Amino acid sequence: SHFTPGGAEPLPAEPQSCVPFKMDLESALKECSSALDLFLNNRFMDALALLKPWKNQSMYHAMGYSSILVMQAAMTFEPKDIDTAMASLRESLQTCEKFRKKVGLMESIANFWNRQSTDKLTEEEMHAELCYAEVLLQKASLTFLDESIIGFIKGGMKIRNSYQIYKDCQTMINSLEDKEKQKQTYVHFTGGVSMGIGSFNLMLSLLPSRVLRLMEFLGFSGDRTQYCCIFFFLTGDGFVRAESLLEPYSKKFPNGALMLFYTARIAVLKGNFTFAQEKFLACIASQEEWRQIHHLCYWELMWAYSFEQKWKEAYRYANFLCKESKWSQAIYVYQKASILSMLPEEEVNKLGENVVDLFRQVDSLRLRIAGKSIPTEKFAAKKAQRYSSSVPVKLVVPALEMMYVWNGFTVVGKRPGLTESILSTLEKAEEQLKNEQNPSEYHLDDQCLVQLLKGLCLRELGRLVQAEICFNHVISCENDIKHDNYLVPFTMYELGLLHRQKGDISKAITIIENVKMNYKDYNMESRLHFRIHAALNTMGTFAAKLPPSRTPA
Ligand SMILES: *[C@@H]1O[C@H](CO)[C@@H](O)[C@H](O)[C@H]1NC(C)=O
């Protein structure tokens, strides 16, 4: 969570049932800071044990306690853990409520504060606002685990609400007097406000599969100044911010699993895969208590090696996931089979694997959460279907297709050399399809998939004319595509982005709006919708920068 790393203080006395002991703000902050130290030193259960006795009386204890449970839930993805975390968050909100100033509307706090200095919130009430915002944010993140559109909307509303409070807290800091600002507890408060967004990012980075989707979702909420910090994943100078946020923690806890993980993730997003691999391995070696952190690292390592097309290494980590993680067996097995499909057959045999068998398992491994299926699992099962017949039809470049599904091309695009190698793999696949003697019913779909992916590589390499030809080829096949109904809408979207890159914003908007309006009921539709919203939002910003057509009254 968001405490500034301070020296570990001796703990206040243990609560004793016979002695009424009130946990004041200062002691609470000190104790939570010790808990955070434990946590960042990979002593997760000790941290929980320290916070637990006070979680119903002290808002910082409540917040710390539920934060840890939320992280655990996000990592195990066990319904039981999610329920426990949710219950703990509700309790934490109640604990915070006890200390919050009672006002009619949350939004009025800032006005309230500015209007009359005699009505200032007490210090405790200010901290209560901050804790409330933090817990609300965590509740929102957990809501996002529910993949439904309702989950998104609910989560999004909580996030807006939470950020509104952070903003109000910022206003409060600005109106503090210098004398007050030097007080230790206010230093924590100020640190808390600025670190709130940082810790949110840390939480997001722990949800690798969901990070980009969340970003995409937040992207369309429109308040760019308020949300700019969240976008550090996507913009150049943002990395500097993320790294500088992380630095004091990395210095103090060089072997902390979360710091190592976060450092590695930033390296991935920068395209520095070698350094990332090193750090993920160090992260795995750093602790054994939370095996789930290993799983997150396996997932990331699998991708880092896939980006380099080192398929045997990538397979190794996909295989670990299949064996050890419960998060989504269908996706892991599909990933593993897809990666193996990129290797020559004799290599696969040497590894003792059977690609056809693996693909055949996918459908039966699917999860249902509250009766709903997970879109990516559904996608994988549909792709794997062609192995269920007695004469299986091989998927072409399935691992590269998944790379696109998980948004990997934007990351690989930072490395022109690797992008060129992927392009050459695609050209080989293209050649093979062309020479196919007995084209199957999937033949055209497969060709279109290869063209879409080729177009992406070419666009990333700046070869826009060739990229456009590839995209247009897919779109021209619209009426003949039989199975992969996602190809045309996704390709159109990518074509829109190509026009954006060329600087033709109005054409880009027209194409992307068309996808939004005219395509329905294809695979991973909501995934594309979030990307669309994000893209339209950035283009809206471009449009806003143009000279205004009329002056405001
Ligand atoms: C990767 O990051 C490390 C550490 O920041 C740096 O020393 C190295 O030069 C980077 N490598 C590349 C290829 O950017």
For the secondary structure, the number of strands is 2
Beta-strand percentage range: under 5%
**Cα Rg:** 25 Å
The helix/strand series, from N terminus to C terminus, equals: HHHHHHHHHHHHHHHHHHHEEHHHHHHHHH
Q: What is the average per-residue confidence, as pLDDT, rounded to a whole number?
A: 80
Describe this entry's structure for a reader.
With 553 residues, the protein is mainly α. It has a domain of 231 residues. The protein is built from 28 helices and 2 strands. It has a two-stranded antiparallel sheet with strand order 1-2. Helix 4 runs antiparallel to helix 6. The protein starts with 24 loop residues before the first helix and ends in an 8-residue tail after the last helix. Bound molecules: 2-acetamido-2-deoxy-beta-D-glucopyranose. The site of 2-acetamido-2-deoxy-beta-D-glucopyranose has 3 residues, from loops. Belongs to the TTC39 family.
Topology (SSEs and partners):
Blueprint: H1 25-40, H2 44-51, H3 59-76, H4 79-99, H5 108-115, H6 123-143, H7 149-174, H8 178-181, H9 184-205, H10 208-219, H11 224-227, H12 236-252, H13 257-270, H14 273-286, H15 291-307, H16 311-324, H17 329-341, H18 345-350, H19 355-361, E1 368-369, E2 372-373, H20 375-384, H21 398-405, H22 409-412, H23 416-434, H24 443-460, H25 464-476, H26 487-502, H27 505-518, H28 525-545
This protein binds 2-acetamido-2-deoxy-beta-D-glucopyranose.
